[in-house]
Amino acid sequence: MSYRPREFWEQVLTQHPGLRGTGQPGMSSAYNDACYALRREVLDRALREAGFDPRGRGVLDVGSGRGFFTAYYLQRGARVTGIDITSASVTDLSARFPDARFILGDVSEVALDQRWDLVNAFDVLYHIVDEARFDAALRHLADAVAPGGLLLVTDTFSALPGLAAHNRMRPLERYRAILEPAGLTLGARYPTHVLLNSDLGLLRFVNRVPWLLLPLDRALLALGAGRDRRHNQLLVARRRASSARG
Questions:
Q1: For the chain, which terminal residue's Cβ has fewer other Cβ atoms within 10 angstroms, N or C?
Q2: Is the pTM of this model over 0.90?
Q3: What pLDDT digit, counting tens, does each position of 133-173 carry?
Q4: 220 assigned to some structural domain
């Protein structure tokens, strides 16, 4: 069966409650909570080192899903707009977060008519498996970044074989070829997980104890682990302050 993004994610979000809908549906809620706790900590560090305070800033949350990142930015005083391809997400989040605005749409199809101080595309772009649609989505998101603003995207930034039908990782140069002509400068990359959210092979039984994996991952990330081609990383790109809309 071919991968149809809108239908696929409508089904996943309908069938799997909580963070399992946007994380690892086959794993426990506790496991997914640990994965997202680590994402939050990595994002905290990336924003701190970029000198970006969300308070009072406009944020576009791309692929809002279950609203984890919507809540993250609202809790920090941002003005949040969310966009998702599924009505399941937009309907749910509009009710849960009345202070945010939500758009039903596909960023690979429609250019956005607004700019934001930060565009958050965490664990989104590698789910666009069609190459032309990926290029269009990344260009649209780059154009949505205000002067001096940030674009956050995650990927392994290396091409990996043998992935699920709804995953396609791409090399860093693919991002650079689109983002730099659009006026963005690629900055730091932050590994998001080491043991969590990874295929542990014969050691996969330890996934049953996420309360142990979380502090191990924190320690490994602090030691600089997770920078090889197998692990997901958060890339921070910044638009020049004087950049004009392209």
A1: N
A2: yes
A3: 999 999 999 999 999 999 999 999 998 877 888 999 999 99
A4: yes
